[in-house]
Specification:
8 helices; about 170 residues; flat; alpha/beta; four-stranded parallel beta sheet
């Protein structure tokens, strides 16, 4: 229902995929539905970024942040979102959520996507790796990224000084 509304009423639609293939499918669906209404809609997504001078250093930061995740708070958030069985969250994850394991039944990767970025796509690594991951999203049709950072001030400086020049070389920024 949300995608249908967005393709009828909006110029942009924010998508959340679990894999690049899922993003590709969602982008295709958005373009196809918008075309039915004689419209063009641009796909966007939110990304949670942890980057550093090297992949190894970025992974050290990720490991530290993940070790500090408040699992009880994440579970309260996740289970609270399944109370409405008609919600897209409940439809996507509700049947899988449970207390059968430490990751609430959705697996470590999905649990951490919620714990660290509210299901945003994660971009972790060196500046070069971050730029390549941004290119991968572009290549499946995502036209805009809303970037969220663990350390917002540092992240903005890293984007300006280290990543945007790489994106320019890739032809993704002017």
């Amino acid at each position: 229902a949300g995608i249908d509304f967005a393709t009828r009423q909006c110029d942009w639609v924010f998508l959340t995929g679990r894999t690049l293939d899922e993003y590709r499918q969602l982008v295709h669906e958005v373009h196809e539905r918008a075309a039915r209404y004689g419209r063009t809609v641009r796909p966007a997504t939110m990304v949670y970024v942890i980057m550093a001078e090297s992949d190894r250093r970025a992974q050290e930061i990720v490991d530290w942040v993940e070790a500090e995740v408040d699992k009880e708070a994440v579970n309260n958030f996740l289970f609270g979102r399944t109370r409405d069985p008609g919600s897209s969250f409940a439809q996507r994850y509700g049947a899988d959520l449970g207390e059968q394991d430490e990751w609430s039944g959705i697996g470590r990767e999905q649990f951490m996507r919620w714990a660290m970025g509210l299901s945003a796509w994660h971009i972790y690594g060196s500046y070069e790796t971050a730029a390549e991951q941004m290119r991968a999203l572009h290549d499946v049709g995502v036209e805009s990224l809303l970037t969220c950072f663990f350390d917002p001030i540092r992240g903005l400086h890293q984007m300006e000084d280290d990543v945007i020049p790489l994106l320019r070389k890739m032809g993704l920024r002017r």
